[in-house]
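HUMAN: Mind sharing a backbone?

ASSISTANT:
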Amino acid sequence: MLKNEKAIVVFSGGQDSTTCLFWALKQFKEVEVVTFDYNQRHSLEIECAKNIANLLGVKHHILDMSLLNQLAPNALTRSDIAVTDGGEGELPSTFVPGRNLLFLTFAGVLARQTGAKHLVTGVCETDFSGYPDCRDIFIKSLNVTLNLSMDDNFVIHTPLMWINKAQTWAMADELGALDFVREKTLTCYNGVIADGCGECPACLLRKRGLDDFLKGRF
């Protein structure tokens, strides 16, 4: 049924969203991607997303979300704020309040304009750093809200919701995209493509997952 339909993938050019893009290309007749420019710490993220979209031949929308930068000072929007894990019940310094709420809402508006009924996002509750807007309950709630707000019938898909990073690498491998995801994506908080800086929390999580996948521990 999905083979005849269209999807919009919320796309950052990172490991998760790129894996979701390959997944969507297998599931849907037509796929477009949307990237949000919120003056994030590394503009290279947007260039990386452009490059991947071009390589895969998918239409790429880039939307200005600079207001989010003004409202939400954190390690992803300010170069003078250090990247740190959350401790003692605190969220990591990389949490951007309202990011997924805004991204999926605007992706829904774009979907309505382009005739897409499906939204795809790489949020995950297994390796989610405690971000509240990556939880399944939030996604289900927003899906209902989007449909009510526009009197439409969108479906938000979260292919990675219940799998860990090793299983995400396994999915990329099953989709024939393991080397592409490993070499072309940007996950690193310090702006280093592919295997990254090897030191920031995102790189450590990515590497641990890859090591576990390569050793068959998933």
In short: The radius of gyration is 16 Å.
